[in-house]
Amino acid sequence: MEIIEYIKLVFSDYTLRTITFGTAILGAVTGMLGSFAVLRKQSLLGDAISHAALPGIALAFLITGTKDSNVLLIGALISGLIGTFWIRGITSKTHLKSDTALGLILSVFFGFGILLLTFIQKLPNADQAGLDKYLFGQAATLMESDVWLMTLVTGLCLIVLLLFWKEFKILLFDKDYALTLGFNTKLIDILITSFIVLAIVLGLQTVGVVLMSAMLLAPAAAARQWTNSLGMMVFLAAILGASAGFFGTAISATQSNLSTGPVIVLVASVFVLFSFVLSPKRGLLFKQIRLIKNRNDLELQKTLAFMYHIVEDHEDISHPHAIRILNNFQGYSRKGLKKLVDKHYVELDGEMWSLTPKGFEVASNLYNQNQKND
Amino acid sequence: MGKIAVKVDDLTVAYNYKPVIWDIDLKIPEGVLMAIVGPNGAGKSTLIKAILGILKPIAGSVTIFDKPYKSQRKHVAYVPQKESVDWDFPTTALDVVMMGTYGSLGWIKRPGIKEKKSALEALEKVGMLSFKNRQISQLSGGQQQRIFLARALVQDASIYFMDEPFQGVDATTEVAIVNILKELRKAGKTVVVVHHDLQTVPEYFDWVTFLNVKKIATGPVKDIFNDDNLTKTYGINYKVSIQK
Predict the structure, then answer these.
(1) What are the domain boundaries of chain A?
(2) Contact check, Cβ <8 Å, B78/A164
(3) What is the overall mean pLDDT for chain A?
(4) Regarding predicted confidence, which is higher, B243 or A258?
(5) Which fold has domain A286-373?
């Protein structure tokens, strides 16, 4: 299907429109909040929260007997919050490191959740089918009301971010210092964590417990590669998250038998891979290129300095010398010599080379500089 | 020296069971440049953090100019250890220094032209003005330390607590910090510095506190900075003759 055709379809087809907007908005809000999780080195918190939400879903179903997504999400929210504050409690009250606490809460809650799900499946009367969609997500079940809820939370999150931007920033960078300035860091902390929990819970229906943390991390990790400003990072992460939602839905809608959640996560991962390799400042590719270029430049400079040493004893600086005397010098190569010729520092005549006045001047400056550094 | 800037009474802090600082009484007169010295694990940073309310003490109280610390935060500035933050955080030198204005702004209000101006002035004082738009990860250790110092200067406080500002800095930065300390003293400010290099204590400071879990001694450098107190604090027989 052509992309134009697809976009037309998004606007005409009710179901497709709902899913597309839903996943895009979800991507935007998780991208925004994910930036904060990544910068606080709490990348795994999202994973623990999403897994901790599972028993809440199962319990909400057991208690109310309904499969209404809003009811189940409230259950998820409560158990997600409980999990989060237990993690905090464990790290502050015991010797356990935060990764241990995260792992502990994640597996205990998830195990309990799975236990409840299997229990529900064996109930004789319950129409239990469908609860397991929260494991891997099922975007197709998104309804317009779900999307409205997501939009509401995203809007609220934006307002809070704009209002408390300075407080969030200083908490992320230097919590102790923020405390000495008189800010209630616990309050800011709770505010931001609650929004992260909320965003994760909203995404469970679409992406599922298992993959949800990727929605939080991938856009933020990708965005970090392109910018050195916090505001820009949050903005970019939102855009990348939304794009992952949009394109992920498009790909899964146009190919049969591809479920949406995993495709969205894969698209987001492609963004990460692309950013890690190709971003101009932090990307691996350009780092490597800069490294090689630096080495080559230094080799050239060294060769030029060596030539200068040979030449400086002669009255005529452009007196020709045999190329073979360079062979003993490490870092010399034919290719390097050709580069020096291209720069008009050196002239070649058969098997002889000579320094040009320009080359001599550059070399003497190099040499002086080196001497100064000695 | 009349007024007492900081008064610490019976301050005790413990991680788990073992006390890190025990029953500290301390009076810091206004206008002194005080070094806190002691071996590793003596509780020097802990003392500062407890005074500033970052750590919750088991017992004890802190008053700033005769009032409880909580009501006097505006008078107190803090320079944390450089290693306490992640310098790969996406922000610029100027932005970090601006954080020093957040306290007086309070909740929600954003820094404006006035705050930016005082941040730029502070950057100039520490010789970092030309680095204002530099990404903080690209600064050297000494430059990062100067950024932290500038951030505290922006607070325009009366009392400055600095946690090892000389730790791992180059000679340029050391000179810059010493000059700032002297200027602060000239302006009548009180400065308390956790310090490691005993050799420079008489040169840089006029007041000293010896700490090793308990307070060993506190007073003017010329009176109490001697082998006796050094031995009591560091446990070994201290025979280094330090010029005064």
Answers:
(1) 3-281, 286-373
(2) no
(3) 87
(4) A258
(5) Arc Repressor Mutant, subunit A (1.10.10)
Q: Which residue has the higher pLDDT, B242 or B213?
A: B213
Q: Do A180 and B53 touch (CB under 8 A)?
A: yes
For A372, other C-beta atoms within 10 Å of its C-beta total 7
Are B84 and A174 in contact (CB < 8 Å)? yes
Q: Chains A and B: how many Cβ contacts under 8 Å?
A: 77
Q: A2 vs A6, A7, A312, B132, CA distance in Å?
A: 6, 9, 69, 49
Instruction: Quote the pTM value.
Output: 0.86
Distant-in-sequence contacts of A60-63, Cβ < 8 A, 24+ apart:
A61/A120, A61/A131, A62/A116, A62/A120
User: With respect to CATH, is domain A3-281 assigned 1.10.3470.10?
Assistant: yes
Confidence of residue B8 (pLDDT cuts 50, 70, 90): very high
Indicate the Cα dihedral angle A84, A89, A90, A95, nearest 10°.
140
The three-state secondary structure class of B167 is coil
Contact B209, B182 (CB under 8 A): no
Contact present, A23 and A42 (Cβ < 8 Å): no
Q: Select the residue from A159, A164, A167, A173 to test the B interface by mutation, using most B Cβ atoms within 10 A.
A: A173
Q: Report the amino acid identity of residue A246.
A: F
Q: What is the pLDDT of residue A303?
A: 82
Inter-axis angle of helices A69-93 and A45-64, nearest 10: 130
Chain B (102-131) residues lying within 8 Å, Cβ to Cβ, of chain A: 102-103, 105-108, 110-111
pLDDT digits (tens, 9 = 90+) for A224-233: 999 999 999 9
- Asked if A3-281 and A286-373 have one fold, the answer is no
Interface of A with B in 162-201 (CB under 8 A): 163-167, 169-170, 172-174, 176-183
ipTM of the shown complex: 0.93
Residues from chain A that touch B108, judged by Cβ atoms under 8 A, are 163-164, 166-167
Closest C-alpha to A227, from B148, B130, B92, B128:
B92
For chain A, the first-to-last Cα distance in angstroms comes to 67
For chain A, list residues with pLDDT below 50.
371-374
> What is the per-residue DSSP string for B53-113?
TSS--SEEEEEETTEEGGGGGGGEEEE--GGGS-TTSS-BHHHHHHGGGHHHH-SSPPP-H
Task: Please give the pLDDT value at position A372.
Answer: 42
The H-or-E segment that residue B30 falls in is: none
Mean pLDDT on B205-230: 92
CA distance readout (Å), A177 to A31, B98, B141: 27, 13, 19
Region B135-156 average pLDDT: 94
Name B210's Cβ contacts closer than 8 Å, sequence gap at least 6: B37, B38, B216, B217, B218, B224, B229, B230, B232, B233
Q: What percent of chain B has pLDDT over 70?
A: 96
pLDDT 10s digits, A327-339: 767 667 777 788 8
A350 neighbors A321 (Cβ within 8 angstroms): no
